[in-house]
Specification:
The chain is of the alpha+beta class and 341 residues long. It has 2 domains: 166 residues, no CATH class; 169 residues. Helix content is 51%, strand content 6%. Helix 6 packs across helix 8 and helix 6 runs parallel beside helix 10.
Length: 341
């Protein structure tokens, strides 16, 4: 009586179910880092996934975790695929039972004193899968400068998922963008903390937030310079934390120092900001004679504490952006002349 069901169950044994993954309106498909400590979600261009990405390895744009290409499905895609496979299985079983019922009913004698029939209700009769829908578009679209694959993220990306390349310039620009976002969000943060924890906590938190922007900017520029300087050799340890030494190194490398890219007033301002960063890191921001001497900042007396403003942060970012443009132009000219590391 259940021959069709038995045959269908035998056919289903070991059978796989394919579930398509839709791309978004820009042609990007969703991926997720398989590292459970990360699970960063991003998108890759569907054509590049087929043409550029390799089966052996894909890298997470955020943490650089490496895994074969078949391990990068999102949690939502996996759950959708499971549900679709189960729906297809239900549909096939349901259809087999209906077929069994129809055959059984046809086999029953007509005009019999006792009539027996079989009816199958409920269940699913769908035997095809529905594609996994794409998530919303992501604003930050990136093309790797090394392999030219295209991908998009929310927030930050440090590595190319196709080749693992770490873009020095992109990472630096992203760092400056995050610092500016932190600086611009102070008002919102202050209001939120005031409402939940009080004015004192809000003031302490926001002051610390602004002060860390200075350190973040100097460190980001240091890492940027170290990465860009690689074509000329290895720079002395922490040389790019020191403004004058950094300018001298670039002057020898590309025949242009910081005074070629910044005005005299900007150089003086940057010197003060670098010394402020040093004082915050090593003396809790308390002004000493060494700070006044090195920075030339006569607005403070010994024993006072530095006050860092959003204006200071913006000035730092503007100066660092100008320097990075000059450095990139200088490195590009050097490469065209055949400079080797």
């Amino acid at each position: 009586m259940f021959e069709d069901l038995i045959k269908e169950m035998e056919r289903m044994n070991g059978q796989s179910v394919s579930v398509a993954i839709e791309s978004d309106e820009k042609g990007y498909i969703d991926k997720q880092c398989p590292n459970e400590d990360c699970e960063f979600i991003f998108k890759v261009n569907e054509k590049d996934w087929a043409d550029i990405f390799k089966d052996e390895a894909v890298w997470c744009p955020f943490c650089r975790y490496e895994a074969p290409s078949d391990q990068w499905l999102t949690i939502e895609q996996v759950e959708h695929a499971k549900a679709e496979a189960f729906a297809v299985m239900q549909g096939k079983i349901h259809n087999s039972l209906r077929s069994c019922a129809q055959k059984f009913n046809r086999s029953q004698p007509k005009n019999s004193f006792i009539s027996i029939s079989m009816k199958v209700t409920g269940g699913l009769n769908r035997t095809h899968t529905i594609p996994a829908k794409a998530a919303d578009l992501m604003q930050l679209e990136i093309q790797c400068e090394s392999c030219e694959s295209r991908f998009s993220v929310v927030g930050s990306a440090y590595f190319c998922p196709a080749c693992g390349h770490n873009s020095v310039t992109r990472t630096f620009r992203d760092s400056l963008r995050k610092i500016r976002a932190k600086k611009d969000s102070v008002g919102i943060v202050k209001q939120a903390i005031t409402e939940t924890a009080g004015k004192d906590e809000a003031e302490l938190t926001c002051r610390s937030l602004i002060e860390t922007c200075i350190s973040d900017g100097v460190v980001a520029f240091q890492k940027y310079c170290e990465g860009m300087y690689d074509i000329f050799g290895k720079a002395p340890f922490n040389a790019f934390q020191r403004l004058e030494q950094a300018s001298e190194l670039w002057g020898k490398a590309v025949q242009k120092g910081f005074d070629e890219w910044l005005s005299k007033d900007e150089i003086n301002l940057l010197r003060i900001l670098y010394q402020k960063r040093h004082l915050l890191a090593h003396n809790e921001g308390i002004v000493d004679e060494k700070y006044i001497h090195k920075s030339g900042d006569n607005k403070y007396k010994e024993g006072q504490r530095l006050v860092i403003s959003a204006f200071d942060v913006e000035n730092l970012l503007v100066c660092l952006e100008k320097l990075s443009i000059g450095i990139e132009e200088g490195c590009s000219d050097a490469k065209s002349l055949g400079v080797n590391s």
